[in-house]
Design a protein that fits this description.
Blueprint lengths: L2 H18 L13 H5 L5 H19 L4 H18 L4 H9 L1 H18 L1
Helix pairs in contact: 1-3, 1-6, 3-4, 3-6, 4-5, 4-6
Protein name: DUF4112 domain-containing protein
Keywords: Membrane, Transmembrane, Transmembrane helix
Organism: Hyphomonas neptunium (strain ATCC 15444)
Length: 117
């Protein structure tokens, strides 16, 4: 992994943690982040966190990852935004889906795979 890739991944890791896993409450068996909280604002919240998640796509494009990685990132974000916009069901979904953490793992896996070649 180049220094540039490591710096981009570190920034995205911090952001994905904040959006998906920053908080824990006693008695709640999972961690959640700002994505779930901001997602409580109808439609706008999901659009805002989806736009923030586009940073993963920028990293994938900047580092010329394969098209299927970029498509998977868009899929994860699209599912998060579309289902998250559904009243009540979408709010519950936002707290559990963790699209940004999924995209972080996806980027890490493919950048490491490419570095191993």
């Amino acid at each position: 992994m180049t220094a540039e890739e490591a710096e981009a991944m570190a920034a995205f890791t911090r952001m994905s943690h904040l959006l998906d896993r920053q908080f824990a409450l006693p008695g709640i068996p999972f961690r959640f982040g700002l994505d779930g909280i901001i997602g409580l604002i109808p439609v706008v919240g999901d659009v805002v966190t989806g736009a923030m998640g586009m940073y993963a796509l920028k990293i994938a494009s900047d580092h010329k990852l394969p098209w299927h990685v970029r498509w998977r990132i868009l899929w994860n974000l699209g599912v998060d935004v579309v289902i998250g916009a559904i009243p009540l069901v979408g709010d519950i979904f936002d707290f559990a889906h963790h699209a940004h953490a999924k995209n972080r793992r996806l980027l890490e896996r493919h950048i490491a795979k490419r570095a191993g070649r």
